[in-house]
Amino acid sequence: MDLRYSSDDLAFRDATRRWFETNVPKVELKTLDERREWHRTLFAAGYVGMGWPPEYGGQAASALRQAIVADEMARVNAPPTINGLGIGIVGPTIIHHGTEAHKHRYLKKILAADELWCQLYSEPNAGSDLASLKTRAEDKGDHFEVNGQKIWTSYGAISDWGLLLARTDTSVAKHRGISCFLINIRQPGVDVRPLKQVTGNQEFCEVFMTGARVEKSDLVGRLGQGWEIAQTTLSYERGGNSLARVTRYTSAFHELVKAARGLRRGGRPLIDDPLVRAKLGRIYAELEVQRYAALRVLSALDKGEGPGAASSITKLSYSEFEKRYFELALEILGPYGQITAGLPEQLNTRVSASSGHGETWAYAYLWSRAGTIYSGSSEIQKNVIGERVLGLPKEARADRVK
Ligand SMILES: Cc1cc2nc3c(=O)[nH]c(=O)nc-3n(C[C@H](O)[C@H](O)[C@H](O)COP(=O)(O)OP(=O)(O)OC[C@H]3O[C@@H](n4cnc5c(N)ncnc54)[C@H](O)[C@@H]3O)c2cc1C
């Protein structure tokens, strides 16, 4: 793998850097309208959905170019796009499995944030064991009628549409009886209720569907193909923006070192403590491992290899690293690490702000706990790696599809 950028890529990076330095918002974006406007500024500049085909509003940009943009955004702590799930997950799923009519109807509106999207997969008794989901979609002749409950729906409260998995056949093995739909969640049969998290925010929702309507034309793929389609979605979710993430951690690392220089323990700067230095050194080495792992993913994507099951390795590795990283930050900051508001500027971190969250290390620490759960917990990633990457014997389960 060649880790050098071409002169064209370097020129692209310089132009991108200048654009972000000039255009990044100078104040925090608080309202939905402000975030939508920023998204549209990014879109107009060509920085949203860059990898999508040009006929649907993208530029078929290489994975490397996309990574450069993500990296430059992270460098200046630019706020994220508002339609993250639409762009990262729903769009690619429609591009892979949707009809031409789906592509024309939905993709440009996703890119322009005219319609915001969420992912309606998990249920109260179907998280890791997603194939056990019970939400039903019944064929009513000219449409499907949906009844059931979803949970942990990120950004459900601001979304207009959802990518839905629902059961359409109970007479076959559970993985085979699931179908994938596009559902308008702003209709009378859908009740979206926000949930409050440990961080104090309300990003999640419960979504109750009672006699909700899905048009026949909004089935994605074939009836019963939902499980297969979900695998595409999840591999995109797990592959992620790994290089940008590393850039954010690196700038947070420098903030942590600065904090360790400023804080004093026993009359001496914390950074003089050999134990603190050793722990910082160790986490920095781990950070470099993350950087090269991200470059490896990028190289595979650049060769046109889809994220696939190996994306589970990336996801497992960065999410577990993230927990160790923020645990160390809290250890170093001591009591300051517990404070969630009103810290002096030099004791804040902007790492979580760049992903649209709060600014304190305490917040980043709390948020890091989520990484080993969403889009499949660490235990589930290990099962996927064992079975689908390493080809180890499958876990013995009576209901498993052979
Ligand atoms: C921040 C965040 C955002 C999310 N956003 C969305 C969203 O937008 N849409 C959506 O549909 N869902 C979303 N989820 C839900 C997420 O997909 C589920 O939480 C996840 O799949 C785990 O399911 P669960 O919570 O039901 O836990 P469970 O499946 O009940 O798991 C509980 C524990 O048991 C372990 N476990 C379960 N099965 C096995 C096994 N076979 N082998 C070993 N260990 C096992 C798990 O690892 C875990 O530790 C989100 C979750 C988080 C944290």
Structural topology:
Layout: H1 7-23, H2 32-44, H3 63-75, H4 84-97, H5 100-111, E1 117-120, E2 136-139, E3 143-150, E4 161-167, E5 178-184, E6 190-195, E7 204-215, E8 219-220, H6 226-239, H7 242-262, E9 264-265, E10 268-269, H8 274-302, H9 311-333, H10 361-371, H11 378-389
Parallel strand pairs: 1-4
Antiparallel strand pairs: 2-3, 3-7, 4-5, 5-8, 6-7, 9-10
Helix pairs in contact: 1-3, 3-7, 4-5, 4-6, 6-9, 7-8, 7-9, 8-9, 9-10, 9-11
Bound molecules: flavin-adenine dinucleotide (FAD).
Distance between the termini: 37 Å
Level of helix content? 40-55%
Q: Provide the CATH architecture of the largest domain.
A: Up-down Bundle
Question: In percent, how much strand structure appears in the residues?
Answer: 5-15%
How confident is the prediction overall: mean pLDDT?
88
Radius of gyration: 22 Å
CATH topology of the largest domain: Butyryl-CoA Dehydrogenase, subunit A, domain 3
Structural class: alpha+beta
Shape: globular
N-to-C SSE string, H for helix and E for strand: HHHHHEEEEEEEEHHEEHHHH
Strand order of the largest sheet: 1-4-5-8
Which residue ranges are poorly predicted, with pLDDT under 50 across at least 5 consecutive positions?
none
CATH superfamily descriptor of the largest domain: Butyryl-CoA Dehydrogenase, subunit A, domain 3
The distinct ligands, each listed once, are: flavin-adenine dinucleotide
CATH class of the largest domain: Mainly Alpha
The biggest beta sheet, please?
4 strands, mixed
Number-wise, the strands total 10
Number of domains: 3
